[in-house]
Amino acid sequence: MATVTLTSENHDETVKDGIALIDFWAGWCVPCQRFAPIYEESSEQHEEVTFAKVDTEDQQELAMRYGVTSIPTLVAYRDGIPVFQQAGALPQAALEDLITQIQGLDMDEVRKTYAEAQAQQS
Asked: Where is the Thioredoxin domain (predicted)?
């Protein structure tokens, strides 16, 4: 599966179902350039996962929404719930391990914990 360009307009639809990984990047960022082929290769191996990319120069509002201050930053969603966020390029093995961990999540427990956290913020 090819990566999709994520914008403020298609964000919610992109992350609402299944697993979605979001790579925040910029063209001038050397670590981003090194991570790009790793991310692309994983996208070809995992057709069940949505691989999205956010150009932080073009989508500054979206980057601010996530509090991205260092790139690349990787964010992961499962069924519309954010389950991971980390700055820094991952090696291929770590990215594959992350995908496996996300696939193995107990989503009933994740939903419960997420709902509790949302309630505390309100």
From this structure: 1-104
